[in-house]
Amino acid sequence: MLHMILLFGSLALGGLFLWFFVWAVRGGQFKDPEEAKYLMFREDDDEEAEFDAQVKRREQCKTK
Q1: pTM, rounded to two decimals
Q2: Where are the alpha helices (DSSP H) in the chain?
Q3: 9 touches 3 (CB < 8 A)
Q4: Distance (Å) of CA 57 to CA 3, 43, 46, 52, 64
Q5: What is the pLDDT along the chain (64 residues), one digit of tens a residue?
Q6: From residue 19, how far is each of 1, 6, 10, 31 by CA, in Å?
Q7: What whole-number distance in Å separates Cα of residue 16 and Cα of residue 44?
C-alpha cells in the first residue's frame, strides 16, 4: 500500500513539474536565455545617457 502511495505521489509531483515547465515555455520564459547577460550592459548605457542628459540640462540652466 505504501508503495502505491509513493508511486502515485511521485507521478503527481512529476506531472506538476512538467506542467510548470510547459507553462514557463509557453509564457516565453526561455525565449532568449542569452539576453540576460547583455541586459546588464544595456541598463548601464541607459543610466549613463540619463546622467549625460542631466549634466546638459544643468549646463543650459547655468548659461541662461
Answers
A1: 0.51
A2: 2-26, 35-63
A3: no
A4: 72, 21, 17, 9, 11
A5: 999 999 999 999 999 999 999 999 999 888 877 877 777 776 665 666 777 788 788 778 877 6
A6: 27, 20, 14, 17
A7: 39
